[in-house]
Predict the structure.
Amino acid sequence: EVQLVESGGDLVQPGRSLRLSCAASGFRFDDYAMYWARQAPGKGLEWVSSISWNGGSTDYADSVKGRFTISRDNAENSLYLQMNSLRPEDTALYYCAKSTHSGGGFSPLDSWGQGTLVVVSS
Amino acid sequence: DIQMTQSPSTLSASVGDRVTITCRASQSINRWLAWYQQKPGQAPILLIYEASSLESGIPSRFSGSFSGTEFTLTISSLQPDDFATYYCQQYNSYPTFGQGTKVEMK
């Protein structure tokens, strides 16, 4: 059974940094691209970033480009999101999600974690 | 960015009803569209991919279709477990989601 467990969410002040982690199990992690998506309280879903199976290809939403960095450690079956220069509008539940394929480009997301909450406020 | 316009935003229906939700893309996305179900406090679940392919384990009362840039999710006979919010997602380019359709009890 696929399991994705996010951690690292917290209350932080604007301008500060935070690193999210996602521990994956139940599938061959290095066979699949991985995603971060987010959902602001009471709002819809928003794609944040994605990374190919080997980390060689990454993509970012315009809203986070230049501030967030996605990475992965296939030896540790882990996905990360380094978030810098955080803004109040980054407040959301952040989901780690598994792609249906391995490479660059984009895909549906067939497994999601339960999310970790990031609140950016002074 | 490709905009996904989903309608209606809310839909009131009864158990046994046939329910249809529509998503319109602002430009061609071929068939690169997925549908998700999300219940309060839970993560989304993939229902349909490539516009009309049923994800493994999803009941056959869910189906997807499309014509041009208009995509449709149909629930043939609404069940109590189906009251939820539904989102479309295009993945032809940088992924974007529709605004969501909440299916509520009439």
